[in-house]
Amino acid sequence: xxxxxELFARLKACEGRPATLAGTGKDPVNLPMIRHWCEALGDTNxxxxxxxxxxxxxxxxxxxxxxxxxxxxxxxxxxxxxxxxxxxxxxxxxxxxxxxxxxxxxxxxxxxxxxxxxxxxxxxxxxDCEQEYLRPLRPGDEITFDxxxxxxxxxxxxxxxTGYFVTTRTRVHAGGELAGTHRFRILxxxxxxxxxxxxxxxxxxxxxxxxxxxxxxxxxxxxIQRCSGCRAPRFPWLPGCPAxxxxxxxxxxASGHGTVHSYVVMHHPPFPAFDPPYAVxxxxxxxxxxxxxxxxxxxxxxxxxxMPVRLEFRxxxxxxxxxxxxxxxS
Length: 330
Hints:
By secondary structure, the protein is mainly β. It folds into 2 domains: about 1-190, Thiol Ester Dehydrase, Chain A, CATH 3.10.129; about 210-325, no CATH class. It has helices spanning about 1-10, 30-40, 105-120, 210-220; strands spanning about 20-25, 125-135, 145-150, 155, 160-175, 175-190, 225, 235, 250-255, 255-265, 280-285, 290-295, 310-315, 320-325. Strands 1, 2, 3, 4, 5 and 6 form a 6-stranded antiparallel sheet that branches. The protein starts with a helix and ends with a strand.
């Protein structure tokens, strides 16, 4: 207990200390990145295009990301949060980010991670983030930011294991003005030792807004909502039309033909009900909407953007039915 108290006191002493100072965005806010973001998310809001375009507010963190290979450390290598976390972004620098090497974390943040590693908390998972938007970001804005270690929790026990929640707060400036803040929280933990549970696949969350979709899946039908007013298709299911705001809708049965818009290959962590590596695709359906699901029928390393896929339904334990997409010619 005394050792735990001493560790917690040393962790708490890191609160208020900087994780980055005078960080600089790798690129100014720019229309190509805004376009890529909107295309990936299917966001057609006209505010993000044209001569008076602004960046989507949720891109706030994107302009501070370091990218691959991520931040350097200020001392010996330590494990830390994912490179997309603001706590790992940007060093103190007086030169443009484009000409700088990989940014460095501050000694204070490295010390915090070292203490947690030495305490056996060698695993890390991002838990949540909070953003506050104070000023729109416009193409041409030069981004600067600084990050502080805001808080370290007492030792907590979770299903993943026992460890500490670390929260960092990043203040993002554009043209010298405070544009927003970004809180990013990770759990640094020692993995729990537990018996392997039965290989039961996680169940989807069914609500009154999407119950009709899952009823269709059980019948081996992939149903897409269609607005009764403007006739715009939408997926996933929503209570109202994002195009016109209408609340009335009907459904269209998907033909099952599509192409891979984007994909990732899942390697880790393994769960008993899954068998990595496997490919998860963002599928463009012929009806004009996108759906996320597994790509099957081809090796995971042969999945490609633009690959034609076709819908099929697979049954899992306890009667669970899920839509998946088989790669290959339509």
